[in-house]
Amino acid sequence: MSGKAKEILQMDLYGLLGIESTATTKEIKKAYRQKALTCHPDKNPDNPRAAELFHQLSQALEVLTDAAAKAAYDKVRAAKKQAEERNRKLDDKRKKIKLDLEARERQAEAQSQEEVQITRTLEEEIARLREEGSRQLEEEQRLIREQIQREREEQQQTGTYSQRISGVRTCSKSSVTPKLKLKWKSKKEDETNGGYSQDTIFKLLQKYGDILNVIVSSKKKGSAVVEFATVRAAELAVKNESGLSGNPLRISWLEGQPEVFPAASQSGPFVPTQGSLSTERDYESIVMMKMRQAAERQKLIQQMQREDEEEADGS
């Protein structure tokens, strides 16, 4: 018997995949994907046990998705169970009747010859699989690698998105920057902060308009400040947003509702500039705008810290 066949005979392939012996090929593949994803060597580079388990899962997929190899394995498996049952019965009977013991030993010898034959059949099927190559295994492992790559790309995109919302936003169209104060219930030991994170708040409120800053208090649970690009967007958020169903938001104006002045009339004579702004002036404008936004963000952080300290002193 080859080493590979002996290794497979020592494993419970169905138990390894967590399936019944009546599972279909589709169910076998599905179980393999689920198990293989958790122990793929690329996901567990420092765990040698993960690589060994991934190898065993691959062997299970090879055998159980090939009809002939599966049939041979099932015969060996059934024979082992029958032998275990016979041995149990022999132990019970051995104490009672000697003749019965001898008869069962002869039966076991005949059964052993049968097991040798069906084991040889399994060995031949495994050798055939090795020579032909398992297209099933190669395809499943390709799908696993692709899924891991997609997960990595999604993680990278999520990280970029988080950096974007935590940084200074440059979508302001007006010098008016209305700010809203958000409150919700959250216990001190709650690591989820009542279900609200910077990303969650941004997703809830961005439907009302452009958001410049989202600052979640680092000292006090259940508190945040949001700076909108327009008063209209902030008004819509105050009137319509209720937050998460299990933990609603209380939204109020941080510095009072700002006034909105009508835009200047466009009906006057158009005075052309000398072409467009020069590159040097454009750069200067961008730098000044970023400086103003950074200063505004720092001001919001300091104001939130002062309010948290005042509330802490009051309590």
Automatic annotation (TrEMBL):
The UniProt record lists the keyword Chaperone: yes
Localization per record: Cytoplasm; Nucleus
Keywords linked to the UniProt accession: Chaperone, Coiled coil, Cytoplasm, Nucleus, RNA-binding
Domain RRM: start-end pairs: 197-256
GO MF annotations in UniProt: RNA binding
Main location: cytoplasm
SMART domains with a match to the protein in the record: DnaJ (SM00271)
Coiled coil residues, start to end: 73-158
Gene3D superfamilies: 3.30.70.330, DnaJ domain
GO annotation, cellular component aspect: cytoplasm; spliceosomal complex
Record-annotated J domain positions: 12-77
InterPro entries: DnaJ_domain, DNAJC17_RRM, J_dom_sf, Nucleotide-bd_a/b_plait_sf, Pre-mRNA-splicing_ERAD, RBD_domain_sf, RRM_dom
Top-rank taxon, per record: Eukaryota
One GO biological process term: spliceosomal complex disassembly
Functional description taken from the UniProt entry: May negatively affect PAX8-induced thyroglobulin/TG transcription.
Protein name: DnaJ homolog subfamily C member 17
